[in-house]
Amino acid sequence: MAYVIDQSQCINCSWCRRECPTSTIQYYNRDERKHWIDPEGCIDCDICSRVCPTKCISHQPEVLPTPEQLKEAKMRARTWARGRRQLKLTIRSYVDREIARRANL
Ligand code: SF4
Ligand code: SF4
Q1: How far is the CA of 4 from the centre of ligand 1 (A)?
Q2: What are the backbone angles phi and psi of residue 28, rounded to the nearest 5°?
């Protein structure tokens, strides 16, 4: 299963591309300058469809990546999740330090 973009409704805002944990959303192909999803990297996480302002991304059960493609995509998603977690920890630690510093002024 994979998600598909209805290119007739896409306004190229790139939100979906920035949020996709497997980097499988591309900006324009040979035919049209619109975003599209490479089904080989889609893990059905639904993040893109939730952020899309025009609601033009939908789930298409008939589009199927192979088990190997799915495994590879999931590994990319785990790396993405680790990066996000690390970023959150870094920001939280900075905020805590800053609050403590200001409290001591
Ligand atoms: S469902 Fe998830 S993995 Fe698939 S294209 Fe959307 S954000 Fe990327
Ligand atoms: S979030 Fe929706 S409108 Fe924006 S680029 Fe992606 S598919 Fe197009």
Answers
A1: 9
A2: 60, 145
Between CA 53 and CA 18 the distance in angstroms is 14
* Token code pair at residue 63: 């589009």
Residue 23 region by backbone torsions, left for phi larger than 0, else alpha for psi between -120 and 50, else beta: left
Round the average pLDDT of the chain to a whole number and report it: 92
Q: Is 47 in the pocket of ligand 1 (CB under 6 A)?
A: yes
**pTM to 2 decimals?**
0.81
CATH, residue 77: 3.30.70.20
User: How many angstroms separate the alpha carbon of residue 75 from the centre of ligand 2?
Assistant: 24
Distance CA 41, CA 60 (A): 14
Domain that holds residue 47: 2-103
